[in-house]
Amino acid sequence: MYAGLRSTDPDLLSMTWEDLLFAHWPVDPDRVEARLPEGLTVATYDGDAYLGVVPFVMQSIGPRWAPVGLSFGELNLRTYVRETGPDAASADGEHGVYFFALDADDRLGVTIARSLFRLPYYRATMTVDRAGDRVAFRSRRPDGSATFAAAYGPDGDRSVPEAGSLAAFLTENYRFYTADDRGRLWYGDIDHPPWELAPARVDIVTNELFAVNGFEHPAGEPVCHYSPRIRVTAGRPHRA
Q1: 31-40, 54-63, 85-94: which is most confident
Q2: Which residues contact 163 (CB under 8 A, 6 or more apart)?
């Protein structure tokens, strides 16, 4: 975590994330580095950068004092980064999440996230169907682009990722970064208990997220993890 590195306020919003799939593909770091804003560099594990596709259901997101909140499906394309420069918050080795796109099935949620968090959210229509421990997730933007369809679920017991493992590198991230339309870098902090992850059994039917965001589809099979639920708090972004 970034505790003590900067003054943060990860208690602005509370939410619950449910039925999460983490699907990560190893890629050439140079492919990702070229797409990052000034002030960030790609984080790697054993020489590889990773592009992640993460579908899940956002439940009860709202101010911590509010009795109710918004709930909707979400799908994001991400990578992992570190800040550069002598005053970088991640200079001690911590890394965070950089989002290329976040799709959500809620018009108000998209508007709030874009204005309050400066994140690249897009409106999409999503369906999430559950049968036992299997989740069928479908998403498509109004113009028909960024189509994604997959069925997934746990394929083993859950455990907390070991420190220093690939699973921890891909999931134990407590800071996100974004750049506004003027190219200025922002960061925000989140907090949650350690992930309890299970290996995932996944059938990805359609995945246009790479193409619509300017990437070739990575070769090979993704590294996949599943988590049923986690409680999260998040703070307002700050200029980096």
Answers
A1: 31-40
A2: none
CA torsion sign for 167, 71, 75, 113 is negative
Q: Report the distance separating Cα 198 and Cα 208, nearest Å.
A: 25
Euclidean distance between CA atoms 67 and 174, whole angstroms: 25
pTM of the model: 0.92
Specify whether the backbone of 171 is left (phi greater than 0), alpha (psi in -120 to 50) or beta. Answer: alpha
Residue 67 pLDDT class (50, 70, 90 cuts)? low
Query: How high is the mean pLDDT of the chain?
Result: 90
> Is the dihedral angle over the CA atoms 120, 114, 174, 93 positive or is it negative?
positive
CB 206 within 8 A of CB 156: no
Higher pLDDT, 131 or 14: 131
Q: Do the beta carbons of residue 58 and residue 103 sit within 8 Å?
A: no
3-state secondary structure of 137: strand
DSSP assignment of 155-185 = -S--BPPPTTSHHHHHH---EEEEE-TT--E
CATH number at 13-239 = 2.40.400.10
Q: Of the given ranges (8-22, 37-51, 184-198, 220-234), which has the lowest mean pLDDT?
A: 8-22
Instruction: Give the residue extent of every domain in the chain.
Output: 13-239
